[in-house]
Amino acid sequence: MSTSDDEFFSDGIDLRDLPKVSLHDHLDGGLRPQTIIDLGREIDLDLPAADADSLADWFVDSCSAGNLPDYLKTFDLSIAVMQSREGLRRVAREFVEDLADDGVVYGEIRWAPEQHLRGGLSLDETVEAVQQGIDEAIDDAARTGHDIRVGQLVTAMRHADRGLEIAELAVRHRDRGVVGFDIAGAEAGFPPSRQRVAFDFLASEYFPVTVHAGEADGLESIRGALFDGRALRLGHGVRLAEDITIERSDDENVYVSLGRLAQWVKDREITLELSPSSNLQTGAIERWGDEIEDHPFDLLYQLGFRVTVNVDNRTMSATSLTRELALLSDAFAYDLGDLEAFQLNAAAASFLPLEEREDLAERISAGFDDVENRAR
């Protein structure tokens, strides 16, 4: 999955310059290949490629088998180099640097502390190491004139049954960089109900939750995320489109009916964290096809769902938010107003206080206006 500079331009506008919000972005899925090589040497890690370009290609090829379990296997490599305080700090710092380079002004980074204990760190120490890297990068970005904010989404692995412990960890750090909670990992067979005690605790603490659902499993997984997990956002949620029936279509219109679940998600403005390239790689959209043009993103957008654009895993998909916006623009002829709508959706869905979400929305609109005016 190669990229080229001319993908990033639309009507004379460099999409990289547009202010963006990143809601679904995995820390262990966004390592620079050279960083994996550098840190891997320190621990004598056996790598499938010796140079950064070849390693980057290996990740994309390995993640394109069309199913989530094979996709997830590649994380063994990235997680292996994130077992020390320095490794976590470096990866987090570079991650935020890459967000800033992509035009992101607010990002939420999700990752699972329980996967980073093999080097002897405690759960709290891993969160602190990641926060140190985030803070360093934010300070560096400010010195170069880029104002970026970043929060952590602490994630529990849905198969490990440590949900309550990780939920308590997230709440302990709610005033030190952590803004929300997530569950991730193999979706089918591990419904949100397995972590119900964790979600009950988080609800009692008024702590926001997003849940991976509707990627590798269908409508029941989404129902569980909403009613067992009390999710305010759906991680991917793309298979919600299975609850939408196309009754008929003509040359100008498509007539659809929504099932009760889809109608509930739409009416409650529950956010869909859609990741087009990743959804292709994992087979999440195989019911509709195997090209970006087949993704139900546009259907959901046109029907009024709160859709957002995300990368999921930058390394595994060789992508960025800029690239995802370019791919969608090419596929569905979106204009600048559409791209702004996606960012405003993300700002409204962020786990910031209301007043700060409103400030973020104003910054995005002003930034879009500025970029458009400069392109005239």
UniProtKB/TrEMBL annotation:
The broad enzyme category this protein falls into is hydrolase
> Which prosthetic group or cofactor does it need?
Zn(2+)
| Keyword list, A-Z | Hydrolase, Metal-binding, Zinc
Instruction: Offer a single GO CC term for the protein.
Output: cytosol
Recorded GO terms, molecular function? Answer: adenosine deaminase activity; metal ion binding
Q: What is its EC number?
A: 3.5.4.4
Adenosine deaminase domain boundaries: 19-365
Q: So which domain of life are we looking at?
A: Bacteria
Q: Which GO terms describe its biological process?
A: adenosine catabolic process; hypoxanthine salvage; inosine biosynthetic process
Pfam families recorded for this chain? A_deaminase
NCBIfam families, from UniProt? PRK09358.1-2
Which protein family is it in?
Belongs to the metallo-dependent hydrolases superfamily. Adenosine and AMP deaminases family.
Protein name in the entry? adenosine deaminase
The protein's organism comes out as Labedella populi
